[in-house]
Design goal:
It contains 5 helices and no strands. With 118 residues, the chain is mainly α. The protein folds into 2 domains: 58 residues, no CATH class; 46 residues, no CATH class.
């Protein structure tokens, strides 16, 4: 019995220690004021800035891979003609019926032409 009671006491001590350690970590975070709402603006700005820096090269690239047959070489999307885009075309062929991408690409082509970005 003595050995079991020592094990129980040791388990209880370890649980209390881990609980106190967790409480101390939370107290440290509160002291640093990281969880303060006034800092959330800075975190949102930093996340936005990192995302902009990472994806900026996309804005200066041209058309790639499937853009050539689907946009540049497809005269059906060079004009925004809804009845034509809802009928059979490159987007709506075989078992697929995808008028939304066809309308989207036609709208973008009519706004920006053959430029991938302004």
């Amino acid at each position: 019995m003595g050995k079991n009671s020592r094990l129980k006491k040791e388990r209880k001590r370890l649980l209390l220690f881990s609980h106190e350690e967790s409480r101390q970590q939370i107290t440290d975070l509160n002291k640093m004021n990281i969880l303060n709402p006034k800092y959330s603006k800075y975190f949102i700005f930093i996340i936005f800035l990192i995302g902009f820096i990472v994806f900026f090269p996309v804005l200066i690239n041209g058309f790639v891979w499937d853009d050539l047959p689907y946009i540049l070489n497809n005269p059906q999307v060079h004009q925004l003609n809804l009845p034509e885009l809802l009928r059979s075309n490159l987007f709506n062929s075989g078992p697929f019926y995808r008028p939304i991408p066809a309308i989207y690409f036609a709208a973008l082509y009519s706004l920006f032409g053959q430029q991938a970005f302004f």
